[in-house]
UniProtKB/TrEMBL annotation:
Organism: Gibberella intermedia (Bulb rot disease fungus)
MF annotations from Gene Ontology: alpha-amylase activity; DNA binding; glucan 1,4-alpha-maltotriohydrolase activity; oligo-1,6-glucosidase activity; sucrose alpha-glucosidase activity; zinc ion binding
The name this protein goes by in its record: Trehalose-6-phosphate hydrolase
SUPFAM superfamilies: (Trans)glycosidases
Alphabetically ordered keywords of this record: Glycosidase, Hydrolase, Maltose metabolism, Nucleus
Matching SMART domains: Aamy
Entry similarity comment: Belongs to the glycosyl hydrolase 13 family.
Region (Disordered): 1054-1074
GO BP annotation list: DNA-templated transcription; maltose catabolic process; sucrose catabolic process
Residues in Glycosyl hydrolase family 13 catalytic domain copies: 20-438
Pfam families hit by this protein: Alpha-amylase, Fungal_trans
Length: 1074
């Protein structure tokens, strides 16, 4: 693609910005609860201060207000609650005094049924005004003989477009409500009357018109039936009433009058494609200056009706913007830029995020996206305040719009027993209903009326309820906040005026048209740059519609704008001189390090590392995400970068050693981890599922780097956020989201079990008996991320299908960690007699063995099962299940290893049996991990394996040192060799393994020393387990006060590593025993 430059003459109205006012909701000056003209006049200085050039008022003419003034009963008078003609004249003068132009809303496709023309027309078939409207006799249903409308046209308000008139016994046409009969423009008298109205207002000082649904004024002759596109009699008639055969003839007649007065015009043209709109707005057509299209509005509307379900996609918006920008520029047309008005809901809620942390950011992003396109800019009242849609808790009694209320009546009729359907439509009203844009303007924080009307006014309340967020989101607060969306709009409009050669008349080029993503980026180019070579010539606008930080690959055409390619650093850095920081949602940075840190790796590298993360790490250390939906989001640039960076930091160790051969990745992992931490620290929403997931990722990163204190801190954050979010009792109703929440909760719970055992602290999370187990893994992966399926959690769902899951099976034996830890603590403190000790051991042993006996045959470790699970990507998870079982079992019996060697009477048969079981589970663990590492798809390379291997190796070492059975010694030597080889392999990826190896050396030396001392080895071994997760340098002095001579050996293995942790152990003395 290349830049397309507008082929148009320059004109002030092309460079203008227009502020739309909805009179009834702007400001009430007399206390009757309805906004009025005097209220508007009182705030003209505010409007001027925004930097706009024109003001457009939605209809203020006389009307019964069936459709909020779009049903006019007198074209030459003002709706009394709004004021008088004198008030209106004063408004025009006040606008002109401030250099602002005035745009009147002209509604001439239809009138009110209370207009004198229509009253006369329906009085008699022989009335002079009869042919000013469309009248037709009834048809008869061939089957029933009942009266039916003249054709099958459906109105835009969900009823028939025809209403029966009892007086004259004919139907009249109304494309909107029955109170809005359509004018018949085929009648020259109608055309002449409209021309007279236009001249009347232009003579009175109006500067131009916004023309309501102007492309509907010409219909297909004969008014034939509409094509059948949906079930039922009524069908949308757009092919017969939008852009009819005489439309441009009628528009040229209007245009000729506008040219006489040098007046402005913008037409509303729904259901019109670019080619048809161009016929109306082409520079030499002599019709309209520009027109509103509704392709953007339609992006999240249903096919058959606006309230039917649909989902907004940023890529679709990118395509619409590109089509209209390039088509109009190439063909001497002009765009009317808008995304929000009185007929469309609030864009912050609709296209971005209206959550409190993201609301201002969203408003600023949308302002930048819209305002820097080519065209005349339209801003709707409250848009500058980041006003949002109606509260979800509002009932239907709060809604006022006839379109919405008519539809709700039909919903109650058609779906009276379908609560789910009713709930869906209620939500759609809140998403796209017109009422969302009509709540009163929020001027200040004064309760209860937000400055819209004075406290103590004669009417009890405004005509429509004030949005309850007015105390924070109001004009007064935002004027005082330099970083508010209001002040951002001021900067945007000022910047637009400063750079009209680029932003108004410059070329337009959309980037990444072939990529589906949440980023919309375009370049504007000055076509007159040769005249002033030293001024800016290009503007790059980058807007993200994602609710989280994402990875965006800089397109080649944007690199020379965004990056300083001349830097001496060897790496491209952000071009800080080119950034317009006042208009961005980012902080100004200046150092090279920060500038480089803001650049992200290529999409290809991100893809590769995220794949490695899910292949080798996810579901082994934790199961935090739904792999298919996360990868799809990441590929489209929609995944949260707080997660992507952390995944890359974890996966880089494998890429640099296995996949890419790129040693730089090993070092980059720290940078990516730092970026993720920064995003976590700077997050806008303090407590969220995303933040919990990020904390658990950083638990893994910290453990991997040997930073055990940081691991504890991140885990503690995750636990606290789960408690604050009440995750166990407030699961989502969406099936996929709920399952992710369930798995996240269990993940944090498992970490809590391990951490409380390792740190000798109380476990923080407790299991609610009704909380569901994680879903079976394959069923979880197959959940459709695009489905809005929601259902209740049934007992059958929680138990029958979930019991088969690998993660669900891990939970029962994870629960024994705390009891095992308690036993060890009591033993170390000499607080438990043998009888009680053996009883507790047997209870835990029974739980573990019962679990093993009840395990389905498909979950046992067999070559067939390993191959089967490996083929589905779950081989490593099956291995993790069984290594957990053997590890907890070896922990349970660990204290009896040395005690079984005693020659005293304390060495009972049960002690000998427990020691045998300990050695047996340690052997099973070593053999299982060795088998897994030789089975493709089952390789166990996650960090925790190092911990498990260290414990099992300590058991093997004990056998090696204290057993006199040659067969046992030969066996453990082989297992120690395998364990050591596996730990050395893990050490390539996880620096934290060095800590495990170092502690194992401590264990070995202590065992050697104890062979010649009276040291109580049993208690020391329990201390070794109890304090295993803590840094040696901080803890061992207090663990071993009774053997100071052993502590002397610690200095040999506690050198200062590059990360402030224990240095890597070499192939130390204990290996010589192998």
């Amino acid at each position: 693609m290349h830049s397309v430059f507008p082929k148009v003459d320059r004109a002030p109205w092309r460079e203008a910005s227009v502020y739309q006012i909805y009179p009834s909701s702007f400001k009430d000056s007399n206390g009757d609860g309805i906004g009025d003209i005097q209220g508007i006049i009182s705030e003209l200085d505010y409007i001027k201060s925004l930097g706009v050039d024109m003001v457009w008022l939605s209809p203020v003419l006389a009307s019964p207000q069936i459709d909020m003034g779009y049903d006019i009963s007198d074209y030459k008078d003002i709706y009394p609650p709004y004021g008088t003609m004198a008030d209106h004249d004063s408004l025009i003068q006040s606008l002109h005094d401030r250099g602002l132009k005035y745009i009147l809303d002209l509604v001439v496709n239809h009138t009110s049924d209370q207009h004198p023309w229509f009253k006369e027309a329906r009085s008699s078939k022989n009335s002079r005004y009869r042919n000013w409207y469309f009248w037709r006799p009834a048809r008869r249903d061939p089957k029933t003989g009942k009266r039916i409308p003249p054709n099958n046209w459906e109105s835009f308000f969900s009823t028939s477009a025809w209403t029966w008139d009892d007086t004259t016994q004919e139907y009249y046409l109304h494309l909107w409500s029955s109170g809005q009969p359509d004018l018949n423009w085929e009648n020259p008298e109608v055309v002449a009357a409209v021309h007279d109205i236009i001249r009347f207002w232009l003579d009175r000082g109006v500067d131009g018109f916004r023309m309501d649904v102007i492309n509907y004024i010409s219909k297909t002759p004969g008014l034939p039936d509409a094509r059948i596109k949906k079930p039922g009699f009524l069908q949308k008639p757009t092919e017969h009433c939008a852009c009819g055969p005489r439309l441009h003839e009628y528009l040229r007649g209007i245009g000729s009058i506008l040219r006489e007065y040098n007046a402005f015009s913008v037409g509303e043209m729904p259901d019109a494609d670019p080619e048809e709109v161009l016929k109306a707005v082409g520079q030499n057509r002599g019709e309209l200056a520009m027109a509103f299209h509704f392709d953007i509005d339609g992006l999240d509307l249903g096919t058959d009706h606006r309230f039917d379900p649909a989902v907004f996609q940023p890529t679709a918006l990118k395509n619409v913007v590109n089509r209209w920008q390039t088509f109009m520029a190439s063909n001497s047309g002009w765009n009317a830029l808008h995304m929000e008005n009185h007929d469309e809901s609030r864009i912050v809620s609709r296209y971005a995020s209206d959550s409190p942390p993201m609301r201002t950011i969203s408003a600023k992003m949308l302002a930048n996206h819209l305002a820097f396109q080519s065209g005349t800019l339209f801003i709707y009242q409250g848009q500058e305040l980041a006003m949002v849609n109606l509260p979800r808790e509002w009932g239907m009694d709060k809604y006022k719009d006839i379109e919405c209320l008519n539809h709700w009546t039909l919903v109650q009729s058609y779906y009276q027993d379908d609560v789910k359907k009713q709930k869906m439509y209620r939500e759609r009203y809140r998403q796209v209903g017109r009422d969302n844009a009509r709540t009163p303007m929020q001027w200040n924080s004064e309760s209860p009326y937000a400055g819209f009307m004075l406290n103590g006014s004669t009417r009890a309340e405004p005509w429509m309820s004030i949005h309850p967020d007015f105390a924070t989101w109001n004009v007064s607060n935002m004027l005082a906040d330099s970083q508010s969306s209001l002040n951002h709009w001021r900067r945007v409009l000022r910047f637009r005026k400063q750079h009209v050669d680029i932003l108004v008349y410059g070329g337009f080029e959309m980037l990444n048209m072939d990529i589906e993503e949440d980023v919309i980026a375009y370049i504007r180019t000055d076509g007159t740059a040769h005249e002033s070579p030293h001024r800016p010539t290009k503007v790059l606008v980058v807007t993200s519609f994602s609710g989280s930080d994402i990875c965006w690959t800089i397109p080649s055409k944007a690199r020379d704008i965004l990056l300083d390619m001349s830097a001496d650093s060897g790496k491209p850095i952000i071009n800080m001189k080119g950034l317009v920081t006042a208009l961005g949602n980012y902080e100004d940075t200046s150092t090279n390090d920060e500038r480089q840190a803001s650049l992200v790796p290529s999409q290809e590298l991100c893809n590769s590392l995220v794949d490695i993360y899910f292949d080798l790490i996810h579901d082994k250390d934790h199961t935090l995400f739904h792999r298919p939906s996360f990868i799809r989001a990441q590929r489209k640039g929609r995944a949260a970068m707080i997660h992507v960076y952390a995944m890359m930091a974890l996966a880089a160790r494998f890429a640099s050693n296995q996949r890419c051969g790129d040693s730089e990745l090993w070092e980059l992992r720290r940078d990516w981890a730092t970026r993720s931490k920064r995003l976590l620290d700077d997050r806008k929403e303090p407590v969220s599922l995303s933040a919990i997931q990020a904390c658990m990722l950083h638990c893994c990163i910290s453990a991997a780097e040997g930073e055990t204190e940081m691991e504890s801190l991140y885990g503690a954050q995750a636990i606290r956020m789960i408690q604050l979010r009440r995750l166990q009792t407030s699961l989502s109703t969406n099936r996929l989201q709920r399952e992710i929440e369930i798995r996240v909760w269990w993940n944090v719970w498992m970490w809590d079990c391990w951490e409380s055992a390792g740190s000798c602290i109380r476990q923080q999370l407790t299991i609610d008996p009704g909380f569901p187990l994680p879903m079976e893994e394959l069923a979880f992966e197959q959940l459709d991320p695009d489905s809005d399926e929601s259902d209740s959690i049934t007992q059958q769902d929680m138990n029958a299908s979930r019991q088969r899951g690998l993660w669900a099976q891990m939970i029962p034996f994870t629960e024994v960690v705390a009891p095992i830890n308690e036993i060890h603590e009591l033993t170390v403190q000499n607080c438990i007699p043998d009888a009680e000790l053996f009883d507790k051991i047997e209870r835990i042993a029974e739980k573990l063995e019962t679990w093993k006996l009840n395990l389905p045959s498909t979950l046992l470790v067999t070559p067939t099962n390993l191959a089967s699970y490996s083929s589905t990507g779950l081989g490593r998870t099956l291995v993790a299940l069984h290594t957990g079982y053997h590890h907890f079992s070896q922990l349970l019996y660990y204290q009896f290893l040395h005690r079984s060697l005693s020659t005293s009477a304390g060495c009972s048969p049960i002690v000998i049996e427990y020691a045998r079981r300990c050695r047996s589970h340690a052997a099973d663990l070593s053999n299982l991990l060795s088998l897994a590492n030789s089975t493709p798809g089952c390789e166990s390379r996650w960090l925790m394996v190092g911990h498990l291997l260290a414990i099992s190796s300590s058991i093997h070492l004990h056998t090696l040192l204290f057993d006199d059975d040659d067969d046992q010694i030969t066996g453990v030597k082989k297992m120690l060799k395998k364990n050591f080889e596996m730990m050395m392999e893990l050490r390539r990826y996880w620096p934290g393994i060095d800590l495990a190896i170092s502690r194992l050396r401590v264990f070995h030396r202590t065992c050697q020393q104890s062979m010649n001392t009276a040291f109580d080895m049993d208690h020391w071994m329990l201390h070794f387990l109890q304090r295993y997760a803590k840094p040696i340098s901080d803890k061992y002095a207090t663990i071993l006060p009774e053997i100071d001579h052993h502590a002397a050996h610690l200095s040999e293995i506690q050198g200062s590593g590059s990360d402030g942790q224990v240095q890597a152990a070499d192939d130390g003395p204990w290996v010589d025993w192998i």
